[in-house]
Design goal:
CATH architecture of chain A: Sandwich
Number of helices of chain A: 0
Number of domains of chain B: 1
Distance between the termini of chain A: 33 Å
Helix content of chain B: under 10%
CATH class of chain A: Mainly Beta
Oligomer: heterodimer
CATH superfamily of chain A: Immunoglobulins
Shape of chain A: globular
Largest sheet of chain A: 6 strands, mixed
Largest interface: A-B, 22 and 23 residues
CATH class of chain B: Mainly Beta
Number of helices of chain B: 0
Structural class of chain A: mainly beta
Number of strands of chain A: 10
Strand content of chain B: over 45%
Radius of gyration of chain A: 13 Å
Number of domains of chain A: 1
C-alpha cells in the first residue's frame, strides 16, 4: 500500500531486553516523526527527522531511547533495557515537508513489557 | 509551551443529533491546527488543516472552524460510523506538533 507501514504490529518482550521498531514512510515524504501513545493518554512527541538536517530529539524520554533514519527513508526506533513504563503504542508518521503539512500515521507498534 | 485542551472528553449522540467538539489552544506563532480521527487499534487519520483565524474546511458531515483561541469541529447529522476519537493538534514556533487528549465520540443508532 501507499501508506506508512510499521512493524511489528505487536511486540511482547521481557523487562531489560532491547527492542527495535521499524517505520517505512510514504515514498517522497521528507519528514518523519515518532510518537508514543499510552493508554488513555494523548500522543507524546518523541523525535522528528527532516531531510538531511540533524533530528529533533527533544522528546526522547531517556537515553535508553534512540532513533535513526537511513537513506532518508526507513527509520528505526530502538529502546534499550526496556522498562515496564515503556509499554505503549509507538506511532510513526510522515509528511511531505515539515510541520506545516499534515502528518500521515501508521497503525503503530503495540509494545508490552512483561 | 504549546498547550491544547479538548472538550468534552466524551460525547454520546443519537444518530442525526448535530453537535460540536471544542479545541482550545495556546501556541506561540501558530503555523497550523490539525484535526485527526482515530479508530481503536489504528493510527490517527488526517481530516483538516487550518492555518489562520476565520478559515473553515468541510468534508461530508464535518466542518472545522478556527479562531485565534479555539477551533470547533461541527458534526452535522452524525451516523454511527462517525464514532471515533477526534484529536486536535497545533504546531507553532516551538516546531513540534502538540496534541490534545481527544474527544471520544459515540453515535448511537
Amino acid at each position: 500500500g501507499a501508506g506508512v507501514s510499521q512493524s511489528p504490529s505487536n511486540k511482547v518482550t521481557e523487562k531489560g531486553k532491547d527492542v527495535e521498531l521499524r517505520c517505512d514512510p510514504i515514498s517522497g515524504h521528507t519528514a518523519l516523526y515518532w510518537y508514543r501513545q499510552s493508554l488513555g493518554q494523548g500522543l507524546e512527541f518523541l523525535i522528528y527527522f527532516q531531510g538531511n538536517s540533524a533530528p529533533d530529539k527533544s522528546g526522547l524520554p531517556s537515553d535508553r531511547f534512540s532513533a535513526e533514519r537511513t537513506g532518508g527513508s526507513v527509520s528505526t526506533l530502538t529502546i534499550q533495557r526496556t522498562q515496564q513504563e515503556d509499554s505503549a503504542v509507538y506511532l510513526c508518521a510522515s509528511s511531505w515537508t515539515g510541520l506545516d503539512q499534515p502528518q500521515h500515521f501508521g497503525d503503530g507498534t503495540r509494545l508490552s513489557i512483561l | 509551551e504549546d498547550q491544547v485542551t479538548q472538550s468534552p472528553e466524551a460525547l454520546r449522540l443519537q444518530e442525526g443529533e448535530s453537535s460540536s467538539l471544542n479545541c482550545s489552544y495556546t501556541v506561540s506563532g501558530l503555523r497550523g491546527l490539525f484535526w485527526y480521527r482515530q479508530d481503536p487499534g489504528k493510527g490517527p487519520e488526517f481530516l483538516f488543516t487550518l492555518y489562520s483565524a476565520g478559515e473553515e474546511k468541510e468534508k461530508e458531515r464535518l466542518k472545522a472552524t478556527l479562531t485565534k483561541k479555539e477551533s470547533f469541529l461541527h458534526i452535522t447529522a452524525p451516523k454511527p460510523e462517525d464514532s471515533a476519537t477526534y484529536l486536535c493538534a497545533v504546531t507553532g514556533s516551538a516546531r513540534q506538533l502538540t496534541f490534545g487528549s481527544g474527544t471520544q465520540l459515540t453515535v448511537l443508532p
